[in-house]
Design brief:
By secondary structure, this protein is mainly β. The protein is 12% helix and 39% strand.
Length: 166
Amino acid sequence: MKKFSFVILVLYLIIPLRIFSQVTSTSARGIANLIVPLSIKPVSGDLDFGEIILTGTPATESILPKDGKLFEITGHPNRFVTITFDKVKLDNSQWVAVYGGNTGTLIFYPDIETDNGTKIHSGDSKRLISYGLLGKLNLWVGGSINIAANQPQGDYRGLFVISVSY
């Protein structure tokens, strides 16, 4: 019997038995934040400086933000959005191609405010105001151009781009 017990003990140590296997587990919580898409659209106004008479002296022309272009940002309520934009190079090259003359450039320096008059600088983050299931923020865009004493005549055009991101 001792011999039989010894054989069973040796088999027990050599052959692993499934009854002694180990099982372990863990868990992780799944999370999904579903948010309203972000958009920006022009609502009203423009950035047209109109006709400016060249006088041979330097001048600065401006459009106040409240008199300029209104953009509406919509997105998820109470989320912060980052607003980016740059100054814009305006040129008269299309006009010169049709009528001749000298090409020139102007730089449009944007001046942007919210409804309550808060100034916005490129890279600023602002919270979308909650209107139920939608967040909104209005941006008013004006700005200025500096006209040189010897600025070439013509219709100056450029494209102002404003971007928003969560």
